[in-house]
Amino acid sequence: MNELILDRRRVSLVKSANISCYLKANGWREQKRSPEKFALWTLENDHGEFEALVPLISSADYATRVRELLHTLELVERRSQDNILFEIETCEADVIRIAGPSEEMFTTPESIPIDEAVSLVHGAREMLWSAACAAVQPQAYFSKWEFREASSYLRNVRMGHTERGSFVFTVVSGIDSNGVHVSAESIDRKATLTLARALSRIQQLPSLDPDLSDATLLRGAVEEGVSANLCEAVSEMIAGNAVGGGIDVSFSWSRIRPMQTDVPSNLHLPQSFPRWLDAASQYLRRFQLPYVEVLQKNYRLQGMVMALDRSPSASAGTVVVEGGLKGRLKKIFVPLAGRQYEEAVVAHLERAPVTCNGELVRQGRRFLLRDAREFAVSR
Predict the structure, then answer these.
(1) Residue pLDDT, tens place only, 258-308
(2) Which of 27, 73, 129, 295 is most exposed, with minimal Cβ within 10 Å?
(3) Residue 183, burial from CB neighbour count under 10 angstroms (0-12, 13-18, 19+)
(4) 3-state secondary structure at position 270
């Protein structure tokens, strides 16, 4: 190959720790270390014995030494320096590869229509977001405003370079916006793990239940990360591939955070899946109950009664109080019964403010005060 990485700045930014991590993961052994200078690594395989010097500190010739090391790895692995360098840069992260049409399906060599590329990238974004939501709380459908932790995770996901052979793009999960690798306990690993398991389940379900006659299978898959959002995202990616062949999704797990469980790493989702995925999505949207998010355990509500709702024969009902929440007025629904509801009726007629305590939650798009107590009318 004899390829040369010409981007000197990119090469100079490679951390020696990443290089050592990569070498160790690929069977190299450190034999000698000269503090603050270099480390000598060796490898023996069927093609012979090889040596590599890893510079340990930044210096005037740091980029030159890294280039020499990349050239050695290119000869050993018989792969391009660019791909090797990318794996060194991301050795601490999980990398997801999403492949669209295979090379023989290209109408123009090594390119696809831009609309297909947009469908793949947008679908991948939605796929990762839904997996991150499921990592926080598995459920059948997610509204866009739910799970701020998942949205925060998505802002740190990076898109890597495309690869040759088919339209393959890489997604790097586990590096924050400043290029810092995040901890193993953070949501990034949970999200990629959830995604791998959920896609594996999606791969199996159409053959197990092709006409969705046994809904218990699909409902059970929700606990494994399958959601209406995930089904729609995968359907978008497959349907956007106009030349056919489906998509392939593969996972390369962080070399410093190896998987402790058996997780599928290579998945194929065929061109025939979108019809089943669309039907599954519609079912899951109907199946989903509103997500309940606890906002404040002990919330004191103060405001005006704006509406009342109680059937003629019932003793309990719901009142709507307009109260302050984070500096803004919000309509908060308060279930009340008996004397408390009667006092709310009086407050509404007299336009008098009310107060009560309870647990403030967001259910779907509504704010709800649960377990209301100490309801009082201020006169």
Answers:
(1) 776 778 889 999 988 999 999 999 989 887 666 677 899 999 999 999 999
(2) 27
(3) exposed
(4) coil
Is residue 239 located within the same domain as residue 141? Answer: yes
Torsion of the alpha carbons at 207, 209, 211 and 215, rounded to the nearest 10: -160
pLDDT digits (tens, 9 = 90+) for 226-248: 999 999 999 999 987 666 678 99
Specify if 3 maps to a domain. Answer: no
Does residue 34 share a domain with residue 147?
no
CB proximity list for 322: less than 8 A, separation 6 or greater: 303, 304, 306, 329, 330, 331, 332
Task: Let me know whether 196 and 85 are in one domain.
Answer: no
Say if residue 179 is in the same domain as residue 282.
yes
The answer to whether residues 114 and 253 belong to one domain is yes
DSSP string, 190-249: HHHHHHHHHHHHHHHHHHHSTT---HHHHHHHHTTT--HHHHHHHHHHHHT-TT-S-EEE
Residue 295, both tokens: 């906002």
The answer on 57 and 206 residing in a single domain is: no
% pLDDT > 90, the chain:
38
Can you say whether the dihedral through the CA atoms of 135, 141, 143, 146 is positive or negative?
negative
CATH number at residue 356: 2.40.50.140
152 and 129, same structural domain?
yes
Number of domains in the chain: 3
- Residues 207, 261 share a domain: yes
Backbone angles phi, psi at 224, to 5 degrees: -95, 5
pLDDT tens-digit readout, 43-74: 988 888 899 889 888 788 888 889 999 999 99
Length of the chain as a residue count: 379
Contacting residues for 327 by C-beta, under 8 A, at least 6 apart: none
Burial letters 71-96, b for 16+ CB under 10 A, else e:
bbbbebeeebbbbbbbbbbbbbbbbb
**264 closest CA partner among 247, 287, 281, 248:** 248
Question: Structural domain of residue 51, as residue ranges?
Answer: 8-89
